[in-house]
Amino acid sequence: xxxxxxxxxxxxxxxxxxxxxxxxxxxxxxxxxxxxxxxxxxxxxxxxxxxxxxxxxxxxxxxxxxxxxxxxxxxxxxxxxxxxxxxxxxxxxxxxxxxxxxxxxxxxxxxxxxxxxxxxxxxxxxxxxxxxxxxxxxxxxxxxxxxxxxxxxxxxxxxxxxxxxxxxxxxxxxxxxxxxxxxxxxxxxxxxxxxxxxxxxxxxxxxxxxxxxxxxxxxxxxxxxxxxxxxxxxxxxxxxxxxxxxxxxxxxxxxxxxxxxxxxxxxxxxxxxxxxxxxxxxxxxxxxxxxxxxxxxxxxxxxxxxxxxxxxxxxxxxxxxxxxxxxxxxxxxxxxxxxxxxxxxxxxxxxxxxxxxxxxxxxxxxxxxxxxxxxxxxxxxxxxxxxxxxxxxxxxxxxxxxxxxxxxxxxxxxxxxxxxxxxxxxxxxxxxxxxxxxxxxxxxxxxxxxxxxxxxxxxxxxxxxxxxxxxxxxxxxxx
Length: 479
Ligand SMILES: Cc1cc2nc3c(=O)[nH]c(=O)nc-3n(C[C@H](O)[C@H](O)[C@H](O)COP(=O)(O)O)c2cc1C
Fold this sequence. Notes:
The protein has 13 helices and 23 strands.
């Protein structure tokens, strides 16, 4: 089932008793998002629509991605199964397979990939002058630099190739017509921006708020730059995403968006952005970022605003991160086939650590895997990579810690790489976006890896004794 728009999804959640309406007056300044956060902390994780937001007559929806089940509704399958299907797409048919059936399979899979651009109907939308004071934009944490739009889809076009990028980057409200644009330097929007900067020309930008949940998920997905997130959404949905042409910008955006801000970024202008209570659990400090100027607003009648809060490990960004980990594992395995499983531990905040298990065949293979991870898409920003053997369950941190402490000699097995690209949010880095990485090879070592001796066997009971002991214990329980 593909949700047509945000309202379709909210109706579904309401019918499934996963959504509640908050009728009590709630302040968008600190209160609203903290309710969303506390709801997640206490484990109720209900999606919420705030109908009575202090000072506004526009509802706010939140906690739309807070559970694994909810993400499965949105994707129509488990993230891992989706990943397997994506992997199947790039499979080269073997001798036994008919090219016709493979071709038909591909046609079916790719049927929705191309977004469909259609005309806007005047009855659908209001076109307005910019005024951000109309919207219940939230302030999340006490020392945040102001109010932030936290769930925008930022749509840009590469000045040379014309390729589209869609990314979710927070936007700090400066006044009723301008915001910050917090695209981190490694992201698609920032890459396009550097092209406009080189040519010293203004960049059209469209920002869509309140789209259907699969389109939002696609904007977060770490796709290689050059792959259109709207096409990816069509691929996942097997249904074209409908786009409409911008009024004042040479860009298209989803017809199902509740609110669209059209405007531009002048490459010669930056402004301090932040502080912001971030995914890491710390405030990201003020840094210079580009400034977005709004020229027009296109919005549905009676729009619904969407928001999210990050900064505590129980919030929905963590669930989205897990879904991405599961979905992209099969694709990572195409490039790094020895990887058996991968865990981005929730506690380590997405880009700080990855644990992978490998089927190790040759000396130095764990380091080969580390370098491959540091050379792959957004995984390249991972600060610490831990490689274990495939007898370790990477999702059981007890087993991982056991391997990390009993299978390493630090001098030989811990590698520190200086002078690398780091995540913008990694505040301990030596400089913004620049620091070091650590690789821990926690696999068993061979002589060829400078291990002098026979690697000891791990403890395992004989299976006949295990069976007999099970019976004895069962009998004890039944007495
Ligand atoms: C709630 C939320 C907020 C985010 N905010 C930002 C942000 O401010 N800046 C940023 O660069 N990435 C942010 N991200 C991550 C990007 O959306 C993500 O890396 C995405 O893949 C970027 O797309 P791109 O590769 O097309 O640039 C955020 C993710 C989530 C879930």
